[in-house]
Design a protein that fits this description.
Elements: H1 2-5, E1 17-21, E2 24-27, E3 32-35, H2 38-41, H3 50-62, H4 73-86, E4 90-94, H5 97-114, E5 122-126, H6 135-140, E6 158-161, H7 166-170, E7 177-183, E8 185-186, E9 192-193, H8 196-208, E10 212-216, H9 230-234, E11 240-243, E12 254-258, H10 279-292, H11 295-315, E13 320-326, E14 329-334, H12 340-350, E15 352-353, E16 355-356, E17 361-364, H13 372-385
Parallel strand pairs: 3-15, 5-6, 5-7, 7-10, 10-11
Antiparallel strand pairs: 1-2, 2-3, 4-12, 8-9, 11-12, 13-14, 14-17, 16-17
């Protein structure tokens, strides 16, 4: 029935979820599922997390939305806390990762115009990256499969280079470059890791050419990889960072943070969003930030991720080539004996929610506060399926 009424662009499975508790979901028939997907890294505190539910309920009773012509008290509170925690100077709030990346692209283009005129407009991204579904963010995405002829023409002045390739840096940047955009872990591209030394070298080369450096942390940000921002661990200190997915625990929200050379680029009217940063989203985001911005919590994310990867590697499955990732962003690389989609379907039937990242990679992004019991239950299902 759903496929007849709602455009099925997602290839949705024949499962209807009605409730959740912790990292466990229940479908309309009462069947239980372990959640190793968390809405693709969105439900970072799982389901029915009481402090989050309480904050949303309390805020809804006060005000859900106000026009951005006015100021929200909870919005101001959250902005102050987010900037203090991340070390940025300012923030634009939107509703999604694509919106956050659109804001970053516009900021980069204006920065280039202000510091080089019309010729400085190229944005350099990485092969196998993913930045969103709008025309600009699709163009920024470094995967040909996301560039069908049916959506052409695409936005001009983007180019891609290969991550972790030092030769690719040498001639990548010049006086036409506005920005370098790095996805800190390439989620949709296969959970591919970016080497810290390479990221630092690429950022240095971009800045030397007069460009700013931006980090797409839509999926990696807000504790997902074991630090508040993944760019912290990579050490390339971006002038712009984009956030979304887990930022508000399931309430739609995105953010574009800026500092340094990017601080004074946007002016009133340059970029706007009707719903961006509304009181309800900011109330939820406050709870997420308070919960995850804690050394013990983040250390536990690292510990859980290490445990999951070591367990899967220890099975020595003939289907698994490699297990990689950071924190609770994990990719299980499969060989040609099984497709990731085949395994995804098999574990779903057995009561485990996962995702794919390309043809050969099974993606695991469970809630950051998943219990050890739920981890082990999910791993048992995955082991049997493999």
């Amino acid at each position: 029935m759903a496929n007849k009424k709602v455009l099925n662009n997602y290839g949705s499975f024949d499962v209807t979820f009605v409730k959740g508790q912790g990292s466990t979901l229940y479908d309309a028939n009462g069947k239980k599922y372990i959640d190793f997907l968390s809405g693709i890294a969105v439900n970072c505190l799982g389901h029915n997390y009481k402090p989050l539910v309480d904050a949303i309920s309390e805020q809804a009773a006060k005000q859900i939305h106000i026009c951005n012509y006015f100021v929200s008290d909870v919005g101001l509170e959250y902005a102050d806390k987010l900037l203090a925690a991340t070390g940025f100077d300012g923030v634009f709030f939107g509703n999604s990762g694509a919106e956050a990346n659109e804001a970053a692209i516009k900021l980069a283009r204006k920065y280039g115009y202000l510091h080089g005129g019309e010729k400085r407009r190229t944005i350099v991204t990485l092969k196998n990256s993913f930045h969103g579904r709008t025309l600009a963010t699709l163009t920024a995405t470094g995967q040909d499969k996301f560039h069908p002829a049916s959506f052409a023409p695409y936005v001009s002045d983007f180019k891609t280079i290969e991550a972790n390739n030092y030769e690719a840096i040498k001639d990548a940047f010049d006086d036409t470059t506005a920005a370098l955009l790095i996805e800190c872990v390439q989620g949709e591209g296969g959970v591919n890791l970016i080497e810290a030394e390479w990221a630092q070298a690429a950022a240095e080369a971009a800045r030397k050419a007069g460009a700013i450096v931006m980090a797409d942390e839509v999926q990696t940000g807000m504790g997902r990889t074991g630090t508040l921002l993944a760019s912290e661990a990579l050490g390339f200190e971006p002038e712009v960072v984009t956030l979304a997915k887990g930022i508000a625990g399931g309430v739609p929200m995105g953010a574009c943070l800026y500092r340094g050379k990017a601080k004074d680029v946007f002016a009133a009217g340059d970029h706007q969003s009707t719903f961006g940063g509304n009181p309800l989203a900011c109330a939820a985001a406050n709870v997420v930030l308070k919960t995850i911005n804690d050394k013990a919590f983040l250390a536990d994310v690292v510990k859980k991720g290490d445990y999951i990867r070591s367990q899967i590697a220890g099975w020595k499955s003939p289907l698994v080539n490699e297990v990689r990732g950071k924190g609770l962003m994990i990719g299980v690389d499969l060989n040609d004996k099984a497709s990731a989609l085949e395994i995804e379907k098999k574990v779903l039937a057995a009561g485990l929610c996962t995702s794919t990242a390309g043809k050969n990679t099974l993606r695991l992004v469970p809630p950051l506060n998943i219990s050890q019991e739920e981890i082990d239950a999910g791993l048992a299902i995955l082991k049997k399926a493999l």
